[in-house]
Amino acid sequence: MIKNLNWYYKEGNQSFGPYSSEEISNLFNTDLIKKNTLLKNDESGDWLSAEIYEEFNIAKTQVRPWMRMWARQIDMFVFGFLVGVLLEIISVFAPYFGLWKYIFGMILLILWILIEAVLLSTIGTTLGKFLFGVKVHNENGLKLTFKQAMKRGLLVWWRGLGMGIPVITLITYWDGYNNLKHKLRETTWDRDLGITVTHRRKTIWNEIVIYIVIAAFALYRYVHLFK
Fold first, then answer.
1. In which band, very low, low, confident or very high, does the pLDDT at 117 lie, cut at 50, 70 and 90?
2. Where do the structural domains in the chain lie, given as residue ranges?
């Protein structure tokens, strides 16, 4: 990253600065500056879109595959738990329906696509993404539309989760991780849809909360598995 440059950013007709490169990066992390925000430095003097400057391409330099995975795991766990409770209640009044709950579980991932699309297009996040600081934006830095969220959900289900088929899922998980961490620095579905995924700025308290959530989730699964 270039050092000792005076950077400015612009909102409407008002400019702010000067800032160092590190300070501009921090503004990216807190979402005060987005990829379409206008930036300039003393050397060029031209206002250019922030995404032009490779050094500030936060979405591709700070990728956290495991945070994204855990966020989705929490979302699926909570959704699956709520659906499971509903199915148990229905089974009490309709015993034969209990046979269908296993088939219903196979299409849980597809149902989640719709629920996630509604959440992302309205409140802009899900429980898992909120807890793990994962933010999903469109190319304008705004929350996804319902159509964008549905397209993304379908591509995640197909390319990222392998339709929920165990062996295929392992392959797609590895491919997605490799693209995100090493090759593209983004997933193929986000690349194709022009979607940016950012992460909440790291602080000791954020990290503590994250590890507490992971530990609680792992403990619950362990107890449930061996009870």
1. very high
2. 7-56, 65-226
